[in-house]
Specification:
There is one protein chain. With about 210 residues, this protein is an alpha+beta fold. It has two domains: about 130 residues, 3-Layer(aba) Sandwich (Glutaredoxin); about 45 residues, no CATH class. The strands form three sheets. Strands 5-4-3-6-7 form a five-stranded mixed β-sheet. The N and C termini lie far apart (about 40 Å). Bound molecules: benzoic acid (BEZ). Benzoic acid binds next to helix 2. Belongs to the peroxiredoxin family. Prx6 subfamily. Belongs to the peroxiredoxin family. AhpC/Prx1 subfamily. It comes from Mucilaginibacter panaciglaebae. This is Peroxiredoxin. Keywords: Antioxidant, Oxidoreductase, Peroxidase, Redox-active center.
């Protein structure tokens, strides 16, 4: 199945490195990041999972739970986690799904047959508290993901969800944001007391509301 932004995230119950997990129960009312990696005991994946573990506090600050997935077994995941902890100087404490029958990978469109008939590509999904898909990024196996970008998109999505703003190109935390076009200019002062700049009637900038 091909998944698109706004689609309901397909729920699943699966064996993981931390026992059986139901996706929706695991995420609760918060945000989620589900990402697939091509295979255990591979170099780029080792650095990616290490980086994710190192960013534990950053994901927690954003009320976001993380889980990884590959088509390897629970035993393989557990052995590999020891290597990740040792070599990346971290404690992997998020679950890695063991999708040995590739059911989840197929449903989530993580296997791209022209890239590999059996392994998952580097797919990454951000799932909102409403369990819809907010972001899909696909990287090739040879390129490790940019997890700062994942955090940046989470920040942007949460600003949109909680403050009616969007974020301009190359926006970084702390920079001005864009007032939603749904808000009339006369309503801006009450909603955005830090003020705003009207570049064009459709492009109004305001300081980041939650800073
Ligand atoms: C890696 O993680 O290094 C990797 C995995 C599959 C294919 C290529 C690279």
């Amino acid at each position: 199945m091909s998944l698109r932004l706004g689609d309901k995230a397909p729920n699943f119950t699966a064996q993981t490195s931390q026992g059986e997990i139901n996706l929706y129960d695991y995420l609760g009312d918060g945000w989620g990041v589900l990402f697939s990696h091509p295979a255990d005991y591979t170099p780029v994946c080792t650095t990616e999972l290490g980086r994710t573990a190192a960013l534990k506090d950053e994901f927690a600050k954003r009320n976001t739970k993380v889980l990884a997935l590959s088509v390897d077994s629970v035993e393989s995941h557990k052995g590999w986690i020891n290597d990740i902890n040792e070599t990346q100087n971290v404690e992997v404490d998020f679950p890695i799904v063991a999708d040995e029958d590739r059911k989840i990978a197929e449903e989530w469109d993580m296997i791209h047959p022209n890239a590999s008939v059996s392994a998952t590509v580097r797919s990454l999904f951000i799932i909102g508290p409403d369990k819809t898909i907010k972001l899909i990024i696909t990287y090739p196996a040879s390129t490790g993901r940019n997890f700062q970008e994942v955090l940046r998109v989470l920040d942007s999505l949460q600003l949109t969800a909680y403050h009616s703003v969007s974020t301009p190109a190359d926006w970084k935390d702390g920079e001005d944001v864009v007032v939603s076009t749904a808000i009339k200019s006369e309503d801006i002062p009450a909603k955005f007391p830090k003020g705003y700049t009207e570049v064009k009637p459709y492009l109004r900038l305001t300081p980041q509301p939650n800073k």
